[in-house]
Design a protein that fits this description.
mainly alpha; 230 residues; two-stranded parallel sheet
Length: 230
C-alpha cells in the first residue's frame, strides 16, 4: 500500500524510503515463511502438478521426496499498488502530470526492484517486483486509509487506488503519451505488468489506429499490453 506509506511520511521523502524498506522486509519475511510451509510437503501432496511434470524437474522426484528444490524454480513476488496516489501525496501531482513526479515514480519502483534483486541474491531465490492488478485490494486500502486519514482530494476520495504504476483512468492523456510514460515501469516490474489502452468506437472501423497503438507499445518497450474495446 504505497499511498499509506506516503501519507504516514508527512512529506519526509527520506522517511518514506526507510518505511518502504521496512515494509519490503516484512513482505519478504512473509513470503519466505510461506515458502517453508509449502516446501515441507512431499511430491505426493501435489499428484497432478508433479505427476504431469508441470513443475520443472518434478519428473525426477519419487512420491515421498521433498519438493524444496522444485519450488525454488518459482517466484516470490512483492507487489505494489497506488503509485499515482503516492505521487499525489509526495509531489502534489501524479506521473501523468509532470516530469518530476514521473522521475520519483521510477525511483520508487526502482527501489522495490533493487530490493527484490538484492534479496534474490542473498537467498538464491527468485524474488520479483510485481505491478499488482489489485482492484479488490486497492478498494479495501482506500476504505481503510479514508477512515484513518480522512477524505483527501485525488487520493482517498475514490473507490479504489489506481492499479500499480498506471496513470489514473480518468486523466485526459493521449494514447502515445500514456504508453511512453508507463513503458519504463515494465522494465522494472519483472514479476508482471500490464498497460491498458481503451479505444472508443468499433475497432473494425479504426484498424489503422489499432495497429498504431500496438506498434507504439512494441516500440516503447511495453512487455504486456491490452487494448480494451467497447
Amino acid at each position: 500500500n504505497l499511498p499509506r506509506i506516503a501519507l504516514k511520511a508527512k512529506g519526509d521523502l527520506a522517511w518514506f524510503f526507510e518505511e518502504l524498506e521496512r515494509v519490503l522486509n516484512l513482505c519478504a519475511g512473509q513470503l519466505l515463511e510461506r515458502f517453508e510451509i509449502v516446501a515441507a510437503k512431499k511430491a505426493r501432496n501435489f499428484p497432478f502438478m508433479m505427476g504431469q511434470g508441470n513443475w520443472l524437474d518434478s519428473e525426477t522426484l519419487g512420491w515421498n521426496d521433498g519438493i524444496r528444490e522444485i519450488l525454488k524454480h518459482g517466484t516470490l513476488s512483492i507487489g505494489f499498488t497506488g503509485l499515482s496516489e503516492t505521487l499525489m501525496v509526495l509531489r502534489g501531482a501524479h506521473h501523468g502530470e509532470n516530469a518530476s513526479s514521473q522521475n520519483l515514480g521510477l525511483e520508487i519502483v526502482g527501489f522495490i526492484r533493487k530490493f527484490c534483486d538484492d534479496i534474490s541474491e542473498k537467498h538464491q531465490m527468485n524474488f520479483t517486483c510485481l505491478a499488482s492488478p489489485a482492484e479488490g485490494l486497492a478498494g479495501r486500502f482506500v476504505r481503510l486509509d479514508r477512515e484513518r486519514f480522512g477524505t483527501l482530494e485525488g487520493i482517498t476520495d475514490r473507490e479504489c487506488y489506481t492499479n500499480s504504476f498506471h496513470i489514473p483512468v480518468d486523466f485526459p492523456i493521449s494514447v502515445t503519451e500514456k504508453i511512453a510514460l508507463e513503458a519504463p515501469y515494465h522494465a522494472l516490474t519483472n514479476g508482471g505488468h500490464i498497460t491498458c489502452i481503451t479505444m472508443a468506437g468499433d475497432a473494425q472501423n479504426s484498424l489503422d489506429a489499432f495497429e498504431k497503438t500496438i506498434r507504439a507499445m512494441h516500440d516503447a518497450g511495453i512487455g504486456y499490453g491490452c487494448v480494451t474495446l467497447p
